[in-house]
Amino acid sequence: xxxxxxxxxxxxxxxxxxxxxxxxxxxxxxxxxxxxxxxxxxxxxxxxxxxxxxxxxxxxxxxxxxxxxxxxxxxxxxxxxxxxxxxxxxxxxxxxxxxxxxxxxxxxxxxxxxxxxxxxxxxxxxxxxxxxxxxxxxxxxxxxxxxxxxxxxxxxxxxxxxxxxxxxxxxxxxxxxx
Length: 178
Description:
Elements: H1 2-31, E1 35-37, H2 42-63, H3 69-93, E2 101-103, H4 121-135, H5 140-167
Antiparallel strand pairs: 1-2
Helix pairs in contact: 2-4, 2-5, 3-4, 4-5
């Protein structure tokens, strides 16, 4: 359990690093006239992702969920792969990546990195991590709750991003895969 708690602390530190990058990138975008979309759903997103981390810690401790190697190791590999994909997205988008939807009009659509194949690869990382990370330590209730709520939230978020990008005439629509 101590190793699990340590891993969750590392994931929390990683999330805080993402927020710092997002804050810096938000300032970059706003300095270039960036416009934010979807402020209304952002608090729900923060709450849901915070709940994921808390559930990952609380469920195994409170309910005595065991580490099952046959499940835990493959789920850890998926969670790490999701982190790699997320940071590939962050690096590819550079100062345009954000936890908020901020669009700087006139910038061309990014079509390199994972965006060559997927329109929203960061959300693939979120979906995979959302079920894999809790299942590393058999927190199946957290995995289930997060996955269901996240799919609802992502339906709002992706629509918000598509609306924001369509408003910027540099983005060809429709098109899901790149």
